[in-house]
Amino acid sequence: MKKIMILTGVILLSSVLLFAQDCAFYYPKTQGTQLEFKNFDKKDKLTGSSIQTVKEFSETSNSTSAHIEVQSFDKKGEDLGKTEFSVQCENGMYSVDMKSFMNSQTMEAYEEMDVKVKSNNLEIPANLNVGDDLGDGKLEISVYSEGVRIMGMTTDITQRKVEAQEEITTEAGTFDCYKITYTLTVKTMFSVRMEAAEWIAEGVGTVKSETYSNGKSMGYTLLTGIKK
Fold first, then answer.
1. How do residues 173-187 score in pLDDT, each as one tens digit?
2. DSSP notation for 23-72
3. Euclidean distance between CA atoms 42 and 212, whole angstroms
4. pTM value?
5. Which of 51, 69, 185, 199 is deepest in the core (most CB within 10 A)?
C-alpha cells in the first residue's frame, strides 16, 4: 500500500513538473530586465521608441508570470507616458494580456477621465508548429465623463497563424523566432483594418513586428537592445 502511495505521488509530481517544463515563456525571466525597441515608418525613418521593463516576476511549479511596464517616446525622445500589462504561462499555455496593445499617448489624453478597460488574453501553446492556427484577442476601451460615455475603442486580433520559423538579426542580436501573422482591426468612430506579423523568441519576446495595408508595409518595430 505504501509503495502504491509513493508511486502515485511520484506520478503526480512528474505531471506537475511536466507542465512547468512545457511552459514556453516568451519574455525574460529576470526582474529588472529592460527591452529597448525602435519604431520605423515604411521609409525606414525613426518614428519613436519604447522601453519595456520586467517590473515583477514570479514562478511556481506550474505557472510563470511577469508584470511589464512600457514607457514610450516620440522620435525626439520626449516621454509619451506609460502603460502596463501582464504575461503568464500556466499548465503549458502562454498568454499575453491584450492591454499590451494600448496606446500610452492615447490613454494619457484621457487620464483625467474615467477609463474602463476590458480585455482577454492572446494565447500561445507550448508546442508551436508552422501552420498552427491560434485564438483571437479583443481589447475594449470606454471613456466616461461625468458618467457619460464619450469615446469607445475596440481592437480585434483575428486570423492568427504560425507562418514560419525564422532567424531574425537586429542590433540586439540574432534570435530563433516564430513568425505569427494576424489581422488587426481598430474601431473608433470608423474602422481601420490592417495585416500584421510578429516574430517572437522564447525567453525574449517580440524581436520584430510589422504592419501592412493591402500587402504593403506601413511600418515596423525592432528590438534594439536588452539590458539586465
1. 999 999 999 999 999
2. ----S--STT-EEEEEEEETTS-EEEEEEEEEEEEEE-SSEEEEEEEEEE
3. 9
4. 0.82
5. 199
